[in-house]
């Protein structure tokens, strides 16, 4: 196969949802279709039910051992599909945001009874920023749901994106009859004995006026579907793929993931319309997937929690060219040539050594602590991919060494955990103390646990009252120097030596923004 053919047949995406909407269930059903797994229950849910550390550790342990579940690759009808897993818990939203930088499209799962929920809204913000094409799957139609038209309006309003139903449900809850596939003109009938099977009975119905419809769903529901269908064609413009690819229009499907219902319709349409790997932006130029030379970047580093294998795995997204095993690549940040003797690919539960990979693929690289998020690999060109975000943390604590004999271990552990993007380290300009900033409170427990179990170091947290940290920049060197002098008690530097302003209160931040007009206060930075 040529490079272009390999690119064209790839679809790399993430499934996102508010916890409990059905992301894990849908992922699993998709894998069943691809024959990547054979039994239900093979995909571990990565959600944290009680928000407890023990829960997190258990999950990390599972994920660490079968780190393969972070990326799930499979083939379906000649198409290579890569699903990137994202953590369910909002305290790990940063990890999700970064994963979204490595996908070409997204499927959003929404619970039909609950509608659009908080986390979905936040994740959609990231998709909008990056103009990522999104498809929506409205789930749990086997339960009593909101009216489908109301749901469509809600998605449009709450996620701020135009929608176009490509399937439509016939009733829901106890009287759920099935889904009419507008995209492929077929009717899928829902009968309870189809539960958990891979194929629902489908009938091709090109003309909704055909009396056949009445025979299948009964006169009342047939009439309802005809009315709904007229309304859909009247209200919504015909499906416009370009608008979808531009991130302006979300096609919507309905179904019930647990019953494997409506999932095939979603998958087949997805394969048809979802984008193959798209160009990636670097500081200097745009990289096209079909360029001959290999380029890629690390978007995630996963520590192995298996005590027998302490090493880490760096996840490399291939952006262009053909990646080959045992071939030298330039690690741009260090300037070193590196080659990988056992790069791995992820096929559902399994992880296997591969000889080559293509744009859109994710390759696992064995890492002993050399790689950082954002690191670029090329065949010699000094590129740096942009847009891998690091968010302004919202929770802060001083980190103190609790075991004087383990000072070095602590320093190394903190350093590596920061490279993994678990949290951010700041050094106060006032007293030189080190401050850890995170997005969610759970990370403090995770850091403490991991420092102890992976690095043999002990830390202690001490409170510090900070409202927000933001990076400051200015073209006006005089004003910047003046600001730093006046605010010196609130100044810190991040790992890269960049200036960070630690605002005590929201008022202090607003005041600073008003008084120092030449200074840009930034709430995200890049790796
Ligand atoms: P998440 O990854 O988005 O957090 O959701 P997950 O798939 O774990 O699903 C959350 C719950 O919703 C699960 O139930 C799952 O069985 C259920 N679910 C998923 N799809 C459907 C559906 O189409 N219809 C119905 N009725 N339920 C669905 P749980 O009780 O939390 O877990 P479990 O004990 O069943 O595994």
Describe the structure.
The chain is an alpha+beta fold. It has three domains: 3-70 and 88-273, Rossmann fold (3-Layer(aba) Sandwich), CATH 3.40.50.300; 280-378, P-loop containing nucleotide triphosphate hydrolases (Rossmann fold), CATH 3.40.50; 392-526, Alpha-Beta Plaits (2-Layer Sandwich), CATH 3.30.70.3280. The chain has 14 helices and 33 strands. The strands form eight sheets. It has an eight-stranded antiparallel β-sheet. Strand 19 and strand 20 form a beta hairpin. The longest helix is centred in the middle third of the chain and has 17 residues, at 219-235. It is globular and about 80 Å long. The two termini are 35 Å apart. The model is unreliable at 45-54, 62-69 and 194-199 (pLDDT under 50). The protein binds guanosine-5',3'-tetraphosphate (G4P). Guanosine-5',3'-tetraphosphate binds at residues 17, 19-25, 45, 47, 88, 139-140, 142-143, 256-259.
Task: Describe the structure concisely for a colleague.
The chain is built from 14 helices and 33 strands.
| Oligomeric state of the chains present here | single chain
CATH fold name of the largest domain, please?
Rossmann fold
Give the strand line-up of the largest sheet: 28-25-27-26-30-31-29-32
Beginning-to-end CA distance, first to last residue = 35 Å
Q: Assign the structural class, choosing from mainly alpha, mainly beta, alpha/beta, alpha+beta, or little secondary structure.
A: alpha+beta
Integer tally of domains: 3
Q: Give the strand content.
A: 25-35%
**Ligand roster:** guanosine-5',3'-tetraphosphate
What is the CA-based Rg, rounded? Answer: 25 Å
Low-confidence stretches: 45-54, 62-69, 194-199
Dominant shape: globular
What is the helix fraction of residues, given as a range?
A: 25-40%
The CATH class of the largest domain is identified as Alpha Beta
Count, helices: 14
Mean of the pLDDT scores?
Answer: 87
Strands, total number? 33
Tell me the name of the CATH homologous superfamily of the largest domain.
P-loop containing nucleotide triphosphate hydrolases
CATH arch. level architecture of the largest domain: 3-Layer(aba) Sandwich
Major beta-sheet overview? 8 strands, antiparallel
């Amino acid at each position: 196969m040529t490079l272009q053919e390999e690119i064209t047949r790839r679809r790399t995406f993430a499934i996102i949802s508010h916890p409990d909407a059905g992301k894990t269930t849908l992922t699993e059903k998709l894998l069943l279709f691809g024959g990547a797994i054979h039994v239900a229950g093979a995909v571990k849910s990565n959600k944290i039910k009680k928000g407890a550390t023990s829960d997190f550790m258990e999950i990390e342990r599972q994920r660490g051992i079968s780190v393969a579940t972070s990326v799930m690759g499979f083939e379906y009808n000649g198409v290579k599909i890569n699903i990137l897993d994202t953590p369910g818990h909002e305290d790990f939203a940063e990890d999700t945001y970064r994963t979204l930088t490595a996908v070409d499209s997204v499927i959003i799962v929404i619970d039909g009874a609950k509608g659009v929920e908080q986390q979905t809204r936040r994740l959609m913000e990231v998709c909008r920023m990056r103009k990522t094409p999104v498809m929506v799957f409205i789930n749990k139609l086997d339960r009593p749901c909101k009216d489908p038209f109301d749901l469509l309006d809600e998605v449009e309003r709450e996620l701020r994106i135009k929608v176009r139903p490509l399937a439509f449900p016939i009733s829901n809850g106890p009287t759920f009859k099935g889904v009419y596939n507008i995209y492929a003109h077929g009717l899928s009938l829902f009968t309870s004995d189809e539960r958990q099977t891979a194929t629902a009975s489908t009938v091709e119905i090109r003309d909704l006026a055909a009396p056949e419809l009445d025979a299948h769903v009964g006169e009342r529901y047939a009439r309802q579907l005809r009315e709904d269908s007229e309304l859909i064609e009247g209200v919504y413009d015909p499906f416009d793929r370009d608008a979808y690819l531009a991130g302006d229009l979300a096609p919507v499907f309905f179904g019930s993931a647990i019953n494997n219902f409506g999932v095939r319709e979603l998958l087949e349409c997805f394969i048809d319309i979802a984008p193959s790997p798209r160009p990636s932006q670097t500081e200097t130029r745009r990289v096209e997937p079909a360029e001959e030379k290999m380029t890629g970047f690390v978007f995630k580093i996963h520590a192995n929690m298996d005590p027998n294998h302490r090493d880490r795995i760096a996840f490399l997204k291939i952006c262009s060219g053909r990646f080959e095993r045992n071939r030298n690549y330039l690690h741009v940040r260090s300037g070193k040539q590196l080659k990988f003797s056992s790069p791995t690919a992820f096929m559902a539960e399994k992880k296997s050594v591969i000889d080559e990979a293509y744009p859109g693929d994710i390759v696992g690289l064995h890492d002993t602590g050399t790689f950082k998020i954002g690191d670029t690999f090329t065949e010699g060109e000094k590129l740096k991919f942009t847009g891998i975000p690091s968010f302004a943390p919202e929770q802060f604590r001083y980190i103190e060494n609790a075991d004087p004999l383990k000072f070095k271990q602590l320093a190394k552990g903190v350093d590596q955990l920061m490279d993994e993007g678990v949290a951010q380290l700041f050094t106060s300009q006032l007293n030189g103390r080190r401050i850890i900033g995170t997005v969610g409170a759970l990370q403090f427990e995770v850091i403490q646990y991991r420092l102890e179990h992976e690095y043999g170091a002990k830390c202690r947290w001490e409170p510090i009252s900070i409202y927000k940290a933001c990076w400051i920049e200015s073209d006006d060197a005089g004003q910047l120097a003046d600001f730093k002098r006046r605010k010196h008690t609130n100044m810190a530097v991040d790992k890269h030596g960049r200036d960070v302003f630690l605002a005590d209160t929201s008022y202090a931040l607003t005041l600073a923004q008003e008084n120092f007009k030449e200074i840009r206060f930034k709430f995200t930075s890049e790796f």
